[in-house]
């Protein structure tokens, strides 16, 4: 039994007390330390005008806001009591205002019209619409977020 345990210990790399480890070889190193190269690296080339005109950094990526979907579903339970729906409408309006601000809603459009394209609506317009009719405009905003993001970024 001791013979088989010794064999397994050697295979795994475990040794008895006092035996040197045979699993990893010992590296003695070189006599001279590393020396840096004698010549300096070449200077970076000047950027061309074509590359300086493009915006730096990658384009932002759209991310789905799952909280809005959950609040939309939770809003169905608020239909039981109108006071609760009014409080939820205030909370939804604040949330949509800050979310539309992070999407840069309406920043690339000069004119804003309630009967025009929804991607031109600014965050305050979205918040007022969600405050007035919470569940309908929250659903409308939730499902048009990606379109708003793509039009304004």
What does it look like?
This protein is mostly helical and 153 residues long. The chain has a domain at 66-152. Helix content is 50%, strand content 0%. The chain contains 6 helices and no strands. Helix 5 runs antiparallel to helix 6. The model has no long low-confidence stretch (mean pLDDT 77).
- Give me the count of strands: 0
Shape: flat
Distance between the termini: 72 Å
Structural class, by secondary structure, is: mainly alpha
Average pLDDT for all residues: 77
Defining key terms:
single chain; 153 residues; mainly alpha; 6 helices; 0% strand
Task: Briefly summarize what is shown.
With 153 residues, the chain is mostly helical.
Compile the SSE list and pairings.
Blueprint: H1 2-12, H2 49-52, H3 66-77, H4 82-102, H5 123-132, H6 134-152
